[in-house]
Amino acid sequence: MKITSACEEFLSHCRVGKNLSEHTLRAYNIDLNEFSAFCTQTTAIADCDRHILRNYLTYLFDKKNLKETSIKRRMACLKAMFHWLESEELLANNPFHKFKAPIKLPKRLPRSLAAHELRSLLTAPLAELGIKTPGEVESITGNLSRKQFNHITCLLTVELLFYTGMRIGELTQILLSDIDLQDSIIKITGKGNRERRVFINDSELTRLIEVYIHLRPQYNPKDKHLFITTHGNPASPQFLRKLIARSAEQASMERHITPHMLRHSTATHLLEAGVDIRHVQKLLGHNSISTTEIYTQVSDNSLKEVICKGHPRRKVLRE
Length: 319
Known about the structure:
By secondary structure, the protein is mainly alpha-helical. It folds into 2 domains: 3-87, Orthogonal Bundle (DNA polymerase, domain 1), CATH 1.10.150; 115-263, Intergrase catalytic core (hpI Integrase, Chain A), CATH 1.10.443.10. Helix content is 57%, strand content 4%. A 3-stranded antiparallel sheet has the order 1-2-3, with no helix packed on it. Helix 6 packs antiparallel against helix 8, helix 6 crosses helix 9 (237-250) and helix 11 crosses helix 12 (289-310). The longest helix has 22 residues, at 289-310.
């Protein structure tokens, strides 16, 4: 079997057998195409050995100058494919068997937003709509302009991302049938098709969702997704990212704001408020609590700052 055929079959398995998201499939396709080009398309998958893997690593580091995180992702994609080929008995010898090439990732703390930044991001679409609180959205009567509808879409996007800590891809997958406002529950489909529930225990946010659901038929009464564009299509992650970035610019925010920063902010602010880390883990849909623990480092930084400013040591010694 040629390497190109192996990649195609693996991608088909990921699409049909594992039902991976389009975002993940695109990333896998890019990674596998790059490996195929490195090996040449006529290379047989059985000829891929540890020597080729090591050369590919060197190529990614030295020729492509990729970051450690990108290289780790590409190697993880390859490892998954070879493991699947082996399990399907399409490959006798897996080159990743006992293959060791640890990639040390730089330690980076999650980028979260401070309280004043969150306020700026949340109030920007309100200012564009000429209102002061999300509860006043329902006061906007008549047919909305496309610009107004996009501002409301942006407002609800930011509110839900921060309140629930969900990923932007999870947000765009929400269907109207996933929402139960009577019990204040939204069903989320996360990574690996794992389902979880988030609770909307905020009357103002609940009302904003109700208003949005009432307004969206103006552009598409039939689509089942919660978020839609003014062209009547389901809103993509890229579309919502642009709305958030544009809102941040209108709020004159100094740094580039991404949806994932809102997820980081949810975890950080909840932990700083004393919420149990296991509850935060469940809210974010982390499979392992070690993933959630990285946010405790951010909280420790905040603790350090507070102690440095307010510790009574100097006052005690002066007295």
